[in-house]
């Protein structure tokens, strides 16, 4: 929703409007060169690591080995813990042996849903140079000198850690005494650091020593000074994927699904930021971060989760594997052909190295393994996967009433109407503008009476106003985030001068959750749900439009340590508020812009402030595929684009695309023309209405998909290779995708297009598989195909809202495969209640199956009228394959 | 002040920004004290100030009576539920080989007569389920239709969905209430099943509206007379009927703003203590026929508007007995929609 620049200029009247630019202002955001630790890590060259394993210190228990690592250049010792975990997963943790003070680790239970369950490691071989461990069918080889770890799945090396020797661990140290700036004589610790650097930069010893480490103890970016009271504390290491040519994941970037090498660009950056009018296809950071990466080839799928919430950069290179090494350690990799390899290099500004290695071997296995760590997407309430109508802003109760009435009079179904920031009393969240929304409960009930819901925005910045009780309450309880000097942090956001509750503190989260009680949030009802925006957090006058890095959080942590978790905790606390207000009966629905690993458990994510342009429609598919791969399956992009006015064709195509994406919400900036679907010219309105109705017919299918995702961590919107892992031509395909494994979707994202080439995967299908087929797609057509062999549940009686369809019958679309068979399932439960209110899945329903549509049946059965009458309630229609199947 | 002027220009800008910001804040605070209706009508309010647009909106609950379902089933015309009287003849059984059949209206396919309204869609043209929600394009005609009015019909997806759409509640013939969590009662809320019949109230309202329209049409003569001597009549609508309105300005208050609407001349917004904005200066008819009168007032001030846009107002003239502004909205930035009641539009 945000439009930082626009909004600032709004306050500054017309003075600044003239400077409004039409794309991201890169000057507002750091490049790697402007970030001290990024520069330090990135300048390291691959080579032999100075770290060796101290074999004498080796301790082995049933599922864990613990051993010290020594930096031979500096004599600093680290400790390595390697755990075997259930489900083909291993954990590699590297910390300082004796840190000056504890280094930040994310509390277990927040991102990790619990202490991961351990699995026995068997010592297979303990030689002079390495130790080989067995984890289920995999081998883990820890080499001593130089230190590296290799993971071998079956007979193939799949993951190598520190194979490039890029491990760099900036231990906590005492700040050197103030020295004349030009020539700092080496004190012992500083000297140690220098030696370390010299070792790591073997080849580059030309620079004078005292210039080697810029920004160790303070940094300045633009006019913002970062005093860095803890000095350098970054950690980094390389992770290679031998045998792989493609890696995926690490949202959020406006990028293709298959990640690119970063040889000629900055590394991919993970640092939650409010980026105004973001650019496409580059590695700049956006609103959220999930440090999880998958590598996939025909034989296996593996990946890592980098459990660190600090600013993180990831370099990617495509190289060839070192076959000599692999033939040495395990007599592996024969043959003459070169083996591809992806080299990745991860570095974070603080915290520890904590890598979860998930060994698959199939795509669905890694999703399950990752879900076992950070949880899966909670089954959304049904209305949340229907159509959402949003705008900045629906101005008042009459406006809401009119939009609601117009949707009905044009017979366009919708489930939720949203209120952006203007609904509040002066941007004080949890309040209402008394003129525009004098009786919010009547308004909410007015739509709820038709089974619909409302959503209001609740952002984490609180207006510093002593008459605003949410602010004063937080202030009096000393719950605000503190500035570097310990004072209440003050920054600029929508309400003007603002402060931010410290969501890192569990007590603050409880306090926040309690604000959603009906008694606290006046004018709210059980039909009102919540939207968290600006929770990166966005601070208009802060460095990179966010918190200063030395902002102080609960438990003595700096924002530097926890930055990427702030928005995660805001959404978590909000979702807990919805549970709390309903005595755990209501399944929460909370939309968030900022996110981290694990955010999938608390609601939906959208891709922030996109633009009403064809390129942004196109990029929504790879962005959502990547979010899905990173566990955030309930995700969507603003239909129509947030900024600018899309033309009718673009808006129509966007609705069609959105109707087959997991979170389906239209949204628009306050400066745009009104564009509710009923305002479109009749031709477009009818097509859009049909697209929305189609979404409603597929709701049982979507609900079932989300149920499977909830149970198994599977993607909802999936790259083709998830279902066809051996089909190499799908590895970089991100303009078409599968829903579950049943529907193939290829949305039209090109202006003027009346057809598209669709790739049909698979070999033993009822159609000619593994090839491209041109498909007509005039404006009223969405290229969607059902896989032969699948059964998709639908409800063909589309009503005004999904709630009103609760007792309606199902239609099963049965697409036969070559053998004339098909299978499928569907799930239903109480569409609103929390899953713990309905654990058994038992219950009764008024729904029934009214129709089976069998597609691909060779011949229409001959049935007399009297026979037909007998089977009337189970009418079987046979059809030839249609475009939809 | 002198000191400030000596400093760099940036400071001055900041001060200006701060003043604007504080004013903005002041008014959002002030908003707290107006908890009542947002629109304060300046012109005199009386019962005849009704505007003829939303006929079905307000009905009196006292006029509601429970529906007697049997009665509505035993209608004078014998026809399946959901079928309009005029179409009743299309829903008679045809006899084929001694069997009672129904002929789908457009596709002409024959289906057993008993399949009519059996909650399963048999005709591809959706004609066999006028009284259930089974067909995708079905239409349901409410059982009670008001005399001399356009027939009220609904998409058949509104049949038995728990919401009363027909004034007689005939669309909720199953009488089944929505689930508990969907049930809401309150003023001005749509009714939920089981439905009350409020057709009498609707009929009464529509009768009153008809009287208002007639009265308005009588008053309209004054407006036509006023325009008799002017040149360029068409500038003021058919026969210059809106000319009289161009001779006056109308005030409309919607806190914190005050509007001054001078049809054909200007629309102004005042917001003490900030500047006055012109919301439109140049009058252009967007539509002036078929009972729709939409006057655009273009070329207002552009400051603070989205780039490339200047303020403009649309005056929608509606039939009413007095000249008055009924509503003023800014649905999108710098575009104002003004509903204006006047006998001239009757």
UniProtKB/TrEMBL annotation, chain A:
GO biological process: carbohydrate metabolic process; N-glycan processing
Compositionally skewed regions (Basic and acidic residues) per UniProt: 191-209
Enzyme class: hydrolase
MF term (GO), any: carbohydrate binding
Pathway per the UniProt entry: Glycan metabolism; N-glycan metabolism
Region described as Disordered: spans on this chain: 175-215
Keywords: Endoplasmic reticulum, Glycoprotein, Glycosidase, Golgi apparatus, Hydrolase, Signal
EC number: 3.2.1.207
Catalytic activity field: N(4)-(alpha-D-Glc-(1->3)-alpha-D-Man-(1->2)-alpha-D-Man-(1->2)-alpha-D-Man-(1->3)-[alpha-D-Man-(1->2)-alpha-D-Man-(1->3)-[alpha-D-Man-(1->2)-alpha-D-Man-(1->6)]-alpha-D-Man-(1->6)]-beta-D-Man-(1->4)-beta-D-GlcNAc-(1->4)-beta-D-GlcNAc)-L-asparaginyl-[protein] + H2O = N(4)-(alpha-D-Man-(1->2)-alpha-D-Man-(1->2)-alpha-D-Man-(1->3)-[alpha-D-Man-(1->2)-alpha-D-Man-(1->3)-[alpha-D-Man-(1->2)-alpha-D-Man-(1->6)]-alpha-D-Man-(1->6)]-beta-D-Man-(1->4)-beta-D-GlcNAc-(1->4)-beta-D-GlcNAc)-L-asparaginyl-[protein] (N-glucan mannose isomer 9A1,2,3B1,2,3) + beta-D-glucose; N(4)-(alpha-D-Glc-(1->3)-alpha-D-Glc-(1->3)-alpha-D-Man-(1->2)-alpha-D-Man-(1->2)-alpha-D-Man-(1->3)-[alpha-D-Man-(1->2)-alpha-D-Man-(1->3)-[alpha-D-Man-(1->2)-alpha-D-Man-(1->6)]-alpha-D-Man-(1->6)]-beta-D-Man-(1->4)-beta-D-GlcNAc-(1->4)-beta-D-GlcNAc)-L-asparaginyl-[protein] + H2O = N(4)-(alpha-D-Glc-(1->3)-alpha-D-Man-(1->2)-alpha-D-Man-(1->2)-alpha-D-Man-(1->3)-[alpha-D-Man-(1->2)-alpha-D-Man-(1->3)-[alpha-D-Man-(1->2)-alpha-D-Man-(1->6)]-alpha-D-Man-(1->6)]-beta-D-Man-(1->4)-beta-D-GlcNAc-(1->4)-beta-D-GlcNAc)-L-asparaginyl-[protein] + beta-D-glucose
Domain Glycosyl hydrolase family 31 C-terminal: 713-792
Pfam families on file: Gal_mutarotas_2, Glyco_hydro_31_2nd, Glyco_hydro_31_3rd
Residues in the signal sequence: 1-23
Residues covered by the Glycoside hydrolase family 31 N-terminal domain: 81-315
Domain Glycoside hydrolase family 31 TIM barrel stretches: 378-705
Record has Glycoprotein as a keyword: yes
Cellular component GO terms, alphabetical: endoplasmic reticulum; Golgi apparatus
Family, as annotated: Belongs to the glycosyl hydrolase 31 family.
Protein name: Neutral alpha-glucosidase AB
Species of provenance: Magallana gigas
UniProtKB/TrEMBL annotation, chain B:
Keywords per UniProt: Disulfide bond, Endoplasmic reticulum, Signal
Domain MRH stretches: 247-346
GO biological process, one term: N-glycan processing
Highest taxon listed in the record's lineage: Eukaryota
InterPro entries the UniProt entry points to: Gtb1-like, LDL_receptor-like_sf, LDrepeatLR_classA_rpt, Man6P_isomerase_rcpt-bd_dom_sf, MRH_dom, PRKCSH, PRKCSH_N
GO cellular component, one term: glucosidase II complex
Gene3D superfamilies: Low-density Lipoprotein Receptor (4.10.400.10), Mannose-6-phosphate receptor binding domain (2.70.130.10)
Protein name in UniProt: Glucosidase 2 subunit beta
Organism placement in taxonomy: Eukaryota, Metazoa, Spiralia, Lophotrochozoa, Mollusca
